[in-house]
């Protein structure tokens, strides 16, 4: 008996009517559903990147071979200043 809204009583009745030798399969399926639920939650909640993740990513050192950058701290500061200037000008327009 399947309905749109399943109750705990229905589930327990169906389990009671099932051969006890098949209960292992029920437990196995419940375990599968729990793992699936955990995976779905992990996909919807992005994990924060750790320092180790950052070091193992392609981000660390991606500008190492660029000869046009020089001091990377100065270059990054310059990029930030350019971005701040762009944002302040676009704010004035709207």
Task: Explain this structure.
By secondary structure, this protein is mainly α. It has a domain at 8-44. Helices cover 64% and strands 0% of the residues. It contains four helices and no strands. It is elongated. It starts with 7 loop residues before the first helix and ends with a helix. The model has no long low-confidence stretch (mean pLDDT 84).
Give the oligomeric state of the chains in this entry, treating copies of one chain as homo and distinct chains as hetero: single chain
Structural class comes to mainly alpha
Mean pLDDT: 84
- Biggest beta sheet attributes: none
DSSP strand content? under 5%
Low-confidence stretches: none
Summary, kept brief:
The protein is an all-alpha fold.
Q: Key terms for this structure?
A:
94 residues, 64% helix
Tell me the layout of helices and strands:
Layout: H1 8-17, H2 23-44, H3 51-56, H4 72-93
